[in-house]
Write a structure and sequence with these properties.
Strand content: 15-25%
Distance between the termini: 77 Å
Number of strands: 5
Length: 144
């Protein structure tokens, strides 16, 4: 029965094509409505951006370090609620040879951090700008 029904439906389209008649395909799919960008109250963070000169973008399709750092800044705000004003963001670029994907990595250093160690870290896929892993570093200040 299933085969017979499919055959009859197919014959309808063949008949229409042979007789140069338009074929209307029944469809329940609708064009999705375009969403307007949502304003989330984010303003550009006032941080110092440093680019590691050894690890800079080699892919001409990659987003800039400024774009990647802003994606990371928004990501940190969304996940940890941190405002990067007066922080330092050290960006470096790297490729994962096992996957053939390029990434921007950001190490975020808090103001007044004497060791210059990152308090937060994030990664952004270098071409698409997609958010990748993010972390917050906890250190025991009493130990060396």
């Amino acid at each position: 029965m299933l085969f017979g029904g499919g055959f009859l439906a197919f014959n309808h389209y063949v008949f229409a094509a042979v007789h140069n008649k338009p074929v209307e395909l029944p469809a329940a799919w609708q064009e999705p409505e375009k969403e307007e960008p949502k304003e989330d109250g984010y303003t550009l963070a006032d941080y110092k951006l440093e680019l590691d000169p050894v690890y800079n973008a080699s892919n001409q399709n990659a987003i800039s370090e400024e774009e990647a750092s802003e994606i990371g800044a928004r990501y940190l705000r969304d996940v940890f609620g941190v405002d990067l004003s007066n922080y330092t963001v050290k960006m470096f670029y790297s490729m994962d040879p096992s996957r053939g994907i390029d990434y921007w990595y950001g190490d975020v250093i808090e103001p007044g951090n004497p060791q210059g160690m990152a308090s937060y870290r994030f990664a952004v896929e270098a071409v698409s700008g997609e958010r990748e892993p993010i972390s917050r570093e906890f250190r025991d200040e009493g130990r060396l």
